[in-house]
Design brief:
Length: 233
């Protein structure tokens, strides 16, 4: 009874080792879906109940949880030959003088020469006492990465307003100072304003963004960075 069509349907619906990979993938998707549902339910509960946490922190936590689920969906497993090929490509780029295709130039020749640039996945911490040049270092990197290399830059400033950060980057690019712009010597002042005006066209399409909101939490910084990353690709 049922004929060939029935037998074909039975074969299709009967678990077998031939379909093991598909079953495992389906199981993984269901697991990730349940984790996502749970994360959203917890977030909704926190938003609906009185809490000492701010809304921004709660949203940041939800986004962090979802991001963790998204990353867990990517196994990130590669054969060793893939890594070797990537390494050899980088070495070949160094030989050909095309190193900045694979690494990030910071704009300071001494550091770039010493380290050969930095990998795009590096996490760099710069420390120092007030007045040691941390902001100058950061604005120089911003100028080099955003203007010269045309790579997106998101600058978080918890102390200086966006006006001061932008001023430092722009004036450094134009190689002028605020004193030059305010100079009573017409030649100096006119020349400085001309340089600033000339370099402004470089900033119009530069992928440089500054966030000067004070007292940002780590979750808020991460959430904004993730939002801008999706926006800029």
């Amino acid at each position: 009874a049922g004929g060939f069509a029935y037998l074909a349907e039975c074969s299709k619906n009967t678990p077998s080792f031939a379909n093991l990979a598909a079953y495992c993938e389906k199981l993984r998707e269901m697991y990730l879906g349940r984790r996502m549902t749970l994360a959203l339910q917890v977030g909704i509960q926190k938003l609906s109940e009185p809490t000492t946490e701010g809304i921004a922190d709660i949203i940041g936590n939800i986004q962090a949880d979802i991001s963790g689920i998204e990353h867990s969906a990517d196994y990130g497993t590669e054969h060793i030959t893939t890594g070797i090929d990537m390494s050899l490509e980088t070495i070949q780029a160094i030989i050909n003088g095309d190193i900045w295709k694979y690494k990030t130039e910071l704009g300071m020749s001494t550091i770039d020469s010493a380290f050969g640039g930095f990998n795009n996945t590096d996490f760099i911490v710069v420390g120092g006492r007030p007045g040691m040049g941390k902001t100058m270092f950061s604005t120089t990197v911003t100028e080099t990465v955003g203007l010269k290399n045309k790579k997106p830059v998101l600058f978080f400033s918890l102390e200086m307003p966006v006006e001061q950060i932008s001023e430092r980057v722009a004036f450094h690019r134009a190689r002028v100072s605020k004193e030059d712009l305010l100079s009573k010597q017409s030649g100096v002042m006119d020349g400085a304003w001309g340089k600033v005006g000339h370099c402004m066209k470089d900033f119009i399409e530069a992928p440089i963004y500054i966030n000067d909101k004070p007292s940002l939490s780590v979750h808020q910084v991460r959430a904004e960075a993730r939002r801008m990353s999706k926006k800029l690709g």
